[in-house]
Amino acid sequence: MKTNAFVRLAAGVAVAALMIAGCSQEGGNKATVKPALVQKDGTTHFEVDGKPFLMFTGELHNSTSTSESYMESIGVWEQMKYGNFNTVIASCSWDVIEDEPGHYNFTSVDHVIRNARKNGLKVVMIWFASWKNGNSTYAPSYIKRDPVKYPLVETQDGGHLNVLSAFCQESMEADKKAYVALMQHIKEIDPDYTVIMMQVENEMGILGSVRDFSPAAQKAWEGQVPADLMQYLSAHKGKLFPELEKVWGENGYKMSGTWEEVFGKSHTKADDLLTDYPYYTEEIFQAYHYAKYVNEITAAGKVAHDIPMYVNNWLRQPGMINPGQFPSGSPLPEVIDVWRAAAPAVDFTAPDIYINEYEWVLSQFALSGNPIFIPECRVDVSKALYAYGEYDALGFAPFGFDGAQNASGAYSADFENLGKCYAILSGMDQMIIQNYGSDKLRGLRVTEENASPSVEMGNYILTARSSVRNQRAINYGQGAAQMARENAQLAAASQQQAQSGALILQTSPDEFYIVGINVSFSFASKNANGPRILTDAIEEGTFANGKWVPGRRLNGDENRVGINGVGAVRVVLYPSTVTAQGR
Ligand code: DGJ
To answer: Which of 63, 204, 500, 507 is the most buried (most CB within 10 A)?
Structure first.
């Protein structure tokens, strides 16, 4: 649900460490402007090259960017051009750049930046380092092979997981040193800010245990809740994530004590993804220590090269809601306050969304003014449109798009659709951004749970349905059997094209532009006894350089607002005096 501007304004001030960047002259004669997250109209805007920017992007598979020749061989740069990307999310692996202790080789970074620049693309770079997907497989060899100096997480029964312990100062220092070297290097070779943002670590947290039981962790668990966290909680009392507010309140809003004294002994029974937080005190404890570790790395990286830096998440999943079943300590909404207290250098936290509860995930991540960026998702245009339209998203990215071509070079239908969607949105990006923070921009998705979502905009209610399901064979005089066959084919097509949704922009009281996928609309007055709403004009078209480029004017047999596949329409509505349904 779109939050109103007032709520956003109130919440937006809580966003951690948002900065307005200044100009620099590092690129020789060329004036360059740092990419920056900026608070405006009660929402967060991303500015690149001094202008508001929407990321139309996708994330490469984990190993792709380690080899320039591999990237060339699969034609990934051409693919991004074809898909109308303006940004690529590529990774930098710690074990690749630090082949020997303190010796850094940035070849795997240089070619990504060079080729992105050549292809007119920006880069979001992921730092695969101490943790990736709740594991530590990207640590350099000298760290992996020395668990005495760089200890691993210990489980309750004394076993070890392949996860570096967040309680180890040496691991953090080594990660920080390498990250600073990386950021210094990027600063040197990238004066025009091809790299616009960094993701620090990847889906961190402990997989396989609710918390770390190593001696250092145990000591911290038995100790006092640190003062910086207590101060943050006290300063934000009444505005904390609801479950955090609840457990702190239930335990008497104590201002000091051990973790279990302040937040209580966790309950362990859990059924409901949306409402249950089992082992919550352990999750809070672990989140605090991951955040501290990552804050040091991020803050030092920003001193070297000050661009926005975020963290991402492996989400709680249906049937997997105990911390440890998802990475415990991950910067999830239920511990966002803990992360903000302990990691002020981190700009925001982002969901990787592979679960069906898409709308719920966005609502949770946006609760306290955290900007929405989806660095990993399945390719689904309805999800992209919903994120930009309803949540002022900075960007949306399907994961592993570089697998979207088959052996003969054809792209998947989903990738084709994404490319068409990015093309239309690119042509109207500034119009979209100008309406961030306003109810003149909305998004909706048709789902199994909600087959006819609606939004109120101005005097109207716009209701969406899947257009594919609405299609019926046209009777040109063929027999009933033929009609039945055609209807069955259309029904089968609707199964394949379940993606349905739209972004809606209201440009005057009666005029709307709708970018959609497999969607049709009906219109009503917002007043229950209001007039019947009819269409004055419907036009297909697209946007180029901020201008509407009309295609067919739709009327007669096509007199309906419907988009099959990906497309855009302009519709003008009017309140009519018609009272009866005609033929
Ligand atoms: C989530 C991770 O963040 C990605 O790096 C990748 O491993 C995907 N899962 C694979 O689905």
So the answer is: 204
